[in-house]
Design goal:
Keywords: Cell membrane, Membrane, Transmembrane, Transmembrane helix
Family: Belongs to the 4-toluene sulfonate uptake permease (TSUP) (TC 2.A.102) family.
Membrane topology: Multi-pass membrane protein
Number of domains: 1
Radius of gyration: 19 Å
Order of helices and strands: HHHHHHHHHHH
Helix content: over 70%
Subcellular location: Cell membrane; Membrane
Strand content: under 5%
Shape: globular
Structural class: mainly alpha
Largest sheet: none
Main location: membrane
Mean pLDDT: 78
Distance between the termini: 66 Å
Number of helices: 11
Low-confidence stretches: none
Length: 304
């Protein structure tokens, strides 16, 4: 019962972050399932089954708040479904000893990308309003879908920063469109896992626990996307992903690091993480004050 409650809380927290940042539900949830010893393919399958419900609810909520560009959803979601099915069948064919560290490496790379991208660069705002081309979105969808299925998460960490970096779609619509299109990816990945490993290794009770937490959080996250600074959330979530997957790798048969080494590495990560959060919060406040000054100056000029 305690584990089910933990899974529900993880689902709730992961969806709050995912719905307001456009990433990290799958990465966060899969990381936890791996940490408690779940088979990698079963962990990814469990998360993707839960995501069918959470992404449906999240997409509906984002649509109600006007956060969805349906052209982007279709252009990236359909290729993403193809990539997700391919990734699920690929992961299903790997043995557990190989798949667990491999998945942790994928998750660690995604975590580093999210952490560095949002901490150092924030969100670009150039080219806003220009159309996103199919020749950009289709390959991005295939890659993101494949990574998502093999890594247990990655649709958001790959897709959201790539679209934000283009500067062509405002953040709230980027997040809403990525969350909504993930519904197609979750369905395709789930089908791929059923084909690859069947249903016997999937704990449906865990699926329901993750789903319950995610469904409760989805409408709240769609509202929060307008209020919480993505830069700070990116630094926070990236740090969680990095720490957890470094722990998995250091304890794996590939490395099997002694306690002294592991704790030293953890200490370094905590220090860097705290510094990154402080920097992100400081930069957010700085830019917020600059925007207020610009608005105030414009108001004075208009009144004059």
């Amino acid at each position: 019962m305690r584990r089910l409650l933990l899974l529900a809380l993880v689902g709730l927290g992961a969806q709050l972050v995912d719905g307001s940042l456009g990433m990290a539900y799958g990465v966060t949830s899969t990381t936890l399932l791996l940490a408690i010893g779940t088979n990698p393919a079963a962990a990814s399958a469990t998360v993707h089954l839960a995501e069918i419900g959470t992404t449906l609810m999240s997409g509906f909520s984002h649509w109600r708040f006007g956060n969805v560009d349906w052209r982007v959803v279709l252009k990236i979601g359909l290729p993403g479904a193809v990539g997700a099915f391919a990734g699920a069948t690929f992961l299903s064919g790997l043995d557990t000893a190989t798949a667990a560290p491999l998945m942790s490496i994928i998750l660690l790379v995604l975590g580093l990308y999210v952490f560095i991208r949002f901490t150092t660069l924030g969100l670009p705002k150039g080219n806003l309003g220009k159309p996103l081309r199919k020749r950009f979105l289709a390959p991005l969808g295939v890659v993101a879908g494949f990574v998502d299925a093999t890594g247990g998460g990655g649709w958001g960490p790959v897709g959201t920063p790539a679209i934000l970096a283009s500067g062509r779609l405002e953040p709230r619509k980027t997040i809403g469109s990525i969350d909504t299109s993930e519904f197609l990816v979750a369905i395709a990945a789930s089908i791929g896992f059923f084909v690859g490993i069947g249903s016997e290794d999937i704990n449906l009770t865990w699926v329901l626990a993750l789903l319950l937490g995610g469904v409760i959080a989805a409408p709240v996250a769609a509202w929060l996307v307008r209020h919480i600074p993505p830069r700070v959330l990116g630094s926070a979530v990236g740090g969680v992903i990095i720490l957890t997957n470094v722990r998995t790798l250091l304890r794996s048969d590939w490395i099997d690091a002694p306690d002294a080494v592991r704790y030293s590495v953890y200490a370094v990560i905590y220090v860097v993480w705290a510094a990154a959060l402080a920097y992100s919060i400081g930069q957010y406040r700085k830019h917020r004050e600059e925007d207020r000054e610009v608005i105030a100056s414009a108001s004075v000029q208009e009144s004059a």
